[in-house]
Amino acid sequence: MKRYVCLAISCCLYTISLAQQTSPKKDNTQYYGKDNFLIEGTGVPESEKESPYDRLPASFKQKVRKPVWDLSKNSAGLSVRFISNSSSIKVRWDLLNNTEMNHMAETGIKGVDLYCKVNGTWKYVNTGRPSAIENEAALVSTLPPGNREFKLYLPLYDGTIKVEIGIDSLSIIKKPLPEKSLPIVFYGTSITQGGCASRPGMAYTNILSRKLGVDCINFGFSGNGRMETPVVEVIAGIQASFYVIDCLPNMSPRQVTDSVIPLARAIRSKNPTTPIVFLENIRYAKMPFEATLNNSINDKNQALRTEFDKLIKGGMKDIFYINTEGATGTDGEGSVDGVHLTDLGFIRLADFLVKNFKENKLVIR
Fold first, then answer.
1. pTM check: above 0.85
2. What span, in angstroms and rounded, lies between the C-alpha atoms of 39 and 194?
3. With DSSP H G I counted as helix, E B as strand and the rest as coil, what are the percentages for the chain, rounded to 5?
4. Residue 29: CB partners within 8 Å, gap ≥ 6?
5. What is the DSSP letter of 89?
6. DSSP assignment, residue 341?
7. Which residues in the chain belong to E strands, given as ranges?
8. pLDDT per residue over 100-141, tens digit each?
């Protein structure tokens, strides 16, 4: 009898052990929303926006053209920053449009990028790959104990509806202190918005943010960066270390001539001494093979130079002009289509701008 009892107990224990080995491990992840992290890369208060992840105030919906408003719903340049001691980091994010393009990776269009600060430097960790409107990704799972600071870059060419950070249930998540320095504000085109980076962290404004240790605000509107008055009004209302205007790819020479001086005066009326930086149209890889395109870009750059010289002669100070010759290299290997940049092109452009900012003594305040 005792032998049968022992055998029965042994069988039960074996069955329990086998079940423990074959049953999926319980997920103890706890998710936290926007009240538990800082949203960065925006100069517009959340109370003034339709969504926390928009780029323009709701009051400008009727002031800007519809394409500009629609693009302002894209979360280009936005990131969330938080501190946690969790051994694992997961993320849930919901998209507005589930956008697709034939020349840009979906991870860049609508994915998310996690970075971790290590010895004062942001290091890439992993990318959340999108698969639908509602997405979830495990970004890291075996971190050793200790508090760490993380930054999650949001989609470049799609809207972000909701973001939730997932951590171990017994771990903490908290907001870090906001950056003390004033941001750099960028106004530009598809290249400024991030086309065609393979992932959000590789847009040139995001690269610059990490390199310079400053928040960069991205007002890049694909095909629609035209130095327009309503957008300039928003930009001028943001206190900045300096403003970078990179709109020529979306403008004609006539538009450049008509817009540069009004833009500069509008910004200067609210910001008497804040530097304004004008970038030429970068040289595209296909320019040597398309005479019409080559002539158009040269004409736009000359129009910018002419209007800039008028501002200088008129007495406006703290304005800067950057010649973009060689900004993305000279081998033609920095683009995806002869125009829009790959990660290589964005790295080169960011390095070029850091060098020029330093040469012009543009400082983070």
1. yes
2. 19
3. 35, 25, 40
4. 88, 90, 166, 167, 168, 169
5. E
6. B
7. 29-32, 38-40, 79-84, 89-95, 112-118, 121-128, 134-140, 148-153, 160-168, 173-174, 184-188, 216-220, 242-246, 276-279, 319-322
8. 999 999 999 999 999 999 999 999 999 999 999 999 999 999
